[in-house]
Structure formats: C-alpha cells, structure tokens
Amino acid sequence: xxxxxxxxxxxxxxxxVAKRFAEHxxxxxxxxxxxxxxxxxxxxxxxxxxxIFGPEVIAEDGSLDRARLGxxxxxxxxxxxxxxxxxxxxxxxxxxxxIAAAERSDPxxxxxxxxxxxxxxxxxxxxxxxxxxxxxxxxxxxxxxxxRGMPEADARRRISAQxxxxxxxxxxxxxxxxxxxxxxxxxxxxxxxxxxxRANHRSAHSDSTVGGAP
Length: 214
Fold this sequence. Notes:
alpha/beta, globular, dephospho-CoA kinase activity, ATP binding, ATP-binding, EC 2.7.1.24
C-alpha cells in the first residue's frame, strides 16, 4: 500500500484533487465524512460533547447541532481545543480502521487520506507522500464569496482559523498549485500519478509521520 496524505486550506481545490485521484483508481478516504461518523448519534464522542457543552448542542433528532456548537467554539480557541481533544482521537481511530481495510482489500493500493486538518490534528499516519493543494488566501476568499455565497468576513475568519499556508507548505512533499484553471490543476495530478504513483507505489517508504506519533 502507498499512503498519501492530501491536505489544503478551505476552498483550495483539495476535493477536486481527491476526486481526480479516485478517477485514477486510488482509494480515497474522506476525513470530513469520518468526522461526521465520529459524532453520530449513539457514539461516545457525541455523549462527551453533550457533557462538556450542554444538552443544547444536541438536536431534537439526537444528532449534533453543528450550528449551535459552532456558535460556541467559533472564535473561542479554548473551547475549540476542548472539542478537538474529543473529536480528533475518534476520527483517528476511524481513519486507522479505514486505511487498514483498504490495505486488506488491495495490499498494493494507492490510498489517499483527504484530511483538511493534517497539520493541525494529531493525524500520525505513516504517510509515504504528503500532497498539499495550494491557492493564495485572497483567491480562496474570492472563491468562497463568489461560489459559495459566503460573506467575506466569514470567509476570512474561516481561513484564519486554519493552519497558515507556510505551515502546510512546510510539510509538503508535492504541491499542487490550484491558482490556475481547473484543467491546469488536474494536469498536475495526472503528471504526479503517471510519474510517481502508477509505477512506484510498491516501493513505498513509510517511516515518516505528520501531526503526532502513529
């Protein structure tokens, strides 16, 4: 198995790159989906969140009221850190299981773990390659405003709440520059696949970790 950690700031085009990897045959694991599963009704993590932040963060159907929780932790680094200390270990357990399942299914698979918080969280998986999708902050603000209808102030707050570009680029083995057109971005993924992943994933070196001990 060849394990890729894929990350990038909000509105960087990371999901587009992940989809392209999947089109090439990679098994893609989405950390956002795992994060939702980690706090699904009946999970220990959700119960712990309710104990910490109060029953008002639980919706009538028993699910997490994300808007309500967000109003508590957004802009409050201490509360956000407390929440992350609950959610991140649960997501890591699920991601470890998903990666192991992908390897059992195909021991020579290319597995892409699409994880927005690769730098911020204690991810700790033994990545063979870290791919960072990069676009400058102003470009990402414009995308969030024009394509998602987000107020500019909210877009800037979301960017500032994530790791900075320098921190992400510092851990990158490969940078996909998404400042250009969609075709230009996809072409970079294609070149990476053809030059390195298609032929060489069997000779992986899995001795480096990012974000914490494995």
